[in-house]
Amino acid sequence: MSRTEEIKGFQVIPVTLSASRYFKTEEPIKHYMYAKKHQSNTDKEIAERSIFLINPPINASLSTIRVFFKKISPESLIENFLLNIENLDYDINLTKLTSDLYDDEEINTGLRLPSGSSLVVFVDKSAANLALSKLKKYSRSKDLYEWNSKSEEPASVRFIKKFKSEILPLEETSEFVSKELQEFENRELESKKNLQEMKTLVDEDGFTLVVGKNRKTKKGILGKISGATDFHKQDTDKKMKKKEKQDFYRFQLRERKKLEMNELLKKFKDDQERIKELKEKKRFRPY
């Protein structure tokens, strides 16, 4: 039975997992990874020298990936390996959810990877292209790479270790909370300062902006102004379109009336001619 080499643009990369006390089976365990050239609109420099890898083995790391690619493509040097195999970091900005004084837009400049995927970053574009071509050749090979999985632990152990590593000591927790509170107070003061500046704002026509007491942020005020401007523009456009339709209708009405009058005049003249003929033939009976 032939082996599938490609699925929806992804190259199928099979490996075998080495035996361990967690894999009690005589048959070799096959593990499938899926690779393709990475694509990104935000960081094209990294994208052109990276390979996007889905479903790497559990113990995948920079060292194990380097060993794997050294076997597949020795000439391709790896610079970094980014992995998101266990997405346990659910970071929610509670300040933004609970306060209307938070005006800063969330800008995420970091690289985000789907859970269970990774990114193999090579030193240059040629190294990445060479590695990808060697992976295609490897996917057709019968000799599969044996991935060292002896150090793998049960999922429960890994999750417990991951959870414990996320818990900060009391001193660090206190420092983190104090820092967040200080940043909140700074944003609050900045927001009030912007509000006072908005109260003295004069537009191009010489009018002073009236700020309502319920408007607490500069963003909220500007949003209100923007909304009013958009509404006024939409109302003006609607009136113009309505006027255009009315003008067009009047033009058609005049044309239609003109055609009707011409038709009536033609009919009247035809009737006159017919009556004239009947009179000449002495067959005209008006009653």
Q: Can you put this structure into words, describing what you see?
A:
This protein has 287 residues and is α+β, with helices and mostly antiparallel strands. The chain has a domain at 6-167. The chain is built from 7 helices and 7 strands; from the N terminus they run βββαβαβαβαβααα. Strands 1, 2, 3, 4, 5, 6 and 7 form a 7-stranded mixed sheet that branches. A hairpin with a 2-residue loop joins strand 1 and strand 2 (10-17). The longest helix has 63 residues, at 218-280. 9% of the residues are buried. The model is unreliable at 102-109 (pLDDT under 50). It comes from Wickerhamomyces mucosus. This is Ribosomal RNA-processing protein 7 C-terminal domain-containing protein. Residues 6-162 form the Rrp7 RRM-like N-terminal domain. Residues 254-281 form a coiled coil.
- Structural class of the secondary elements? alpha+beta
Q: Spans of 5+ residues with little confidence (pLDDT < 50)?
A: 102-109
Helix content: 40-55%
Looking at the structure, what is the overall shape? elongated
Mean pLDDT over the full residue set: 77
Largest sheet: 7 strands, mixed
* CA-atom Rg in angstroms: 38 Å
Share in β-strands: 5-15%
Q: Please give the count of helices.
A: 7
Number of strands: 7
The end-to-end distance, rounded to whole angstroms, is 102 Å
Order of helices and strands: EEEHEHEHEHEHHH
Pfam families: RRM_Rrp7, RRP7
Keywords: Coiled coil
Protein name: Ribosomal RNA-processing protein 7 C-terminal domain-containing protein
Organism: Wickerhamomyces mucosus
